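Ligand-bound model needed. iron/sulfur cluster.
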Amino acid sequence: MDKKYRILIQEKNCKQCGICSYLCPKEVLAQSVGECPTVVNPGACIGCRLCAMRCPDFAIEVEVVQE
Ligand code: SF4
Ligand code: SF4
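Prediction:
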C-alpha cells in the first residue's frame, strides 16, 4: 500500500512567510497572505519534505502514518 503522511504545523512557530505552500509540488498546503498554512489535501502528499526542510522556523513536520 502507498505510504500516507501527516503534516504537522506548529502555528506558534510559524511566521506566515508562505515558503512551504509555495514550494509544495502537490498543493497539499493552502495559505492566505498573513495566515498560517492549512493542510487541504493530505492524500496528495508524497512525503518529499520540501515544506519541512525549507521552513525557516522548523514549524512543519512530516510523519509517515501508513507503510
Ligand atoms: S512533504 Fe512534500 S508533498 Fe508533502 S506537504 Fe510537504 S512539500 Fe508538500
Ligand atoms: S514555511 Fe514555516 S514559517 Fe513559513 S508559512 Fe510555512 S510553516 Fe509558516
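The two ends are 7 Å apart (CA to CA).
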